[in-house]
Amino acid sequence: MRCMTSSDTPGTAANAPAERTAVAARDWSSAAADPQYRAAVVDLLGALAYGELAAFERLAEDAKLAPTLADKAELAKMASAEFHHFERLSNRLAEIGEEPTEAMAPFVTAYESFHKQTAPSDWLEGLVKAYVGDSIASDFYREVAARLDTDTRELVLAVLDDTGHAEFAVEKVRAAIDADPRVGGRLALWARRLMGEALSQSQRVVADRDALSTMLVGGVADGFDLAEVGRMFSRITEAHTKRMAALKLAA
Amino acid sequence: MRCMTSSDTPGTAANAPAERTAVAARDWSSAAADPQYRAAVVDLLGALAYGELAAFERLAEDAKLAPTLADKAELAKMASAEFHHFERLSNRLAEIGEEPTEAMAPFVTAYESFHKQTAPSDWLEGLVKAYVGDSIASDFYREVAARLDTDTRELVLAVLDDTGHAEFAVEKVRAAIDADPRVGGRLALWARRLMGEALSQSQRVVADRDALSTMLVGGVADGFDLAEVGRMFSRITEAHTKRMAALKLAA
């Protein structure tokens, strides 16, 4: 399925390690000459854009559950930051001649299923969900970013900039567990359910989106083979486990 | 209840018309020397700030009902704009040494009652509600702004800047009525209910908040007497009626 030929990248040797750095060293206009790479990036930006819009909605929804006005304002602030990330991604899609809503459309069902399966029943569940979801998404996109062309990478890393949510969630959840340790058991179960549902929806997306999964599995980007994808999922799961432990939630 | 004495405003004659321009010609630090004026402005900024936060929540909520991804993104954009207005008001309260959440607290019940009594049952009712609510609030604050000190006035007018919602709502509602004229009858009833509920909650706020109502009724600001308040409410209702007629909704 490799569609990048060495003739597209003059000066790059045809062996695998050199190819692995090829896209990551090129800018968008050069890398996008390969239609499969271009399609994969459009998918990636569409998925990320809809994810930000969904995060906006989820945080705004959680703001309604906030126990104090200050917490409400804090969540509204994060929601607004997510919206600005969405805006940048959406503008970028338009810039490269893609209709943002069309690029996002293939990912709506997966996000909506995830959110329906994991509707938080209270403020703390909402915080844990936002924290777990943001962290996993951020880990995933950072892994992928390293393999993207320089322009796309810069944008992806910029919109992953922490909106301050992690610190806020950790602080509130820790305080709640300190006040009532039984809360920890309930939230640990909840976090496991979130991780399971997130993995199941990701698999669905990967199965549905050829260009995206081809890029992930040793395809048009940089020699990201199936074993590497497996290792990536391990790293993400491991990081999740560590975060939960730091939150005093056994994952 | 007039607490501003002519000795506080050297150079101002003691007659009513001159007093009427007094606060409006002063800046905050001069006007705020009068503790009742100061308390009234803190109330006003608190009410406006909570209104923006509530508008953020309402628009984010409506975004979930949006029939298309483009509509959803448009509403998220407006919600985010309302959040930035909230942020400016909240920063201003902090700047003048007030705790924003304390300043907002007295107005939470009125807004929440209003929103509970007027939960939209669909996308179009949500649009009409946001349009009617924003327009009435904007008319009211513009009337009051003319009577405020120069610094507070500038801020109030800045956060009333149209977030593009009005045009969007009008366009969508008109199209829906053109497509099915029966929709117009239903939305006209809805708009009447919104106006009634808004008036009833405003009366509650005015009854509860001494400093604010004293400013409105010929008090610490600029000779805004009871007859003038009556005329203000007439102007606001009249503007509402005109807007509804323009929307082909008989108010």
Would you kindly provide a written description of the structure presented here, covering whatever features stand out?
Chains A, B: Residues 35-219 form the Ferritin-like domain. Two copies of one chain form a homodimer. With 251 residues, chain A is mostly helical. Helices cover 75% and strands 0% of the residues of chain A. Chain A has one domain (26-246): Ferritin, core subunit, four-helix bundle (Ferritin), CATH 1.20.1260. Chain A has helices at 16-22, 28-31, 35-65, 69-95, 100-104, 108-117, 123-145, 150-159, 165-179, 182-208, 210-216, 226-246. In chain A, helix 3 runs antiparallel to helix 7. Chain A is globular, with a radius of gyration of 19 Å. The two termini of chain A are 37 Å apart. The A-B interface holds A 50, 53, 56-57, 60-61, 63-64, 68-70, 72-73, 76-77, 79-80, 83-84, 86-87, 90, 100-101, 104-105, 108 and B 50, 53, 56-57, 60-61, 63-64, 68-70, 72-73, 76-77, 79-80, 83-84, 86-87, 90, 100-101, 104-105, 108.
Helix content of chain A: over 70%
The overall pLDDT average of chain A reads 83
Radius of gyration of chain A: 19 Å
Most extensive interface, residues per chain? A-B, 27 and 27 residues
Stretches of chain A where pLDDT falls below 50 for ≥5 residues?
A: 1-21
CATH superfamily of chain A: Ferritin, core subunit, four-helix bundle
Count the domains of chain A.
1
CATH class of chain A: Mainly Alpha
Pfam families (chains A, B): MiaE_2
Domain Ferritin-like (chains A, B): 35-219
Protein name (chains A, B): Ferritin-like domain-containing protein
InterPro entries (chains A, B): Ferritin-like, Ferritin-like_SF, Ferritin_actino
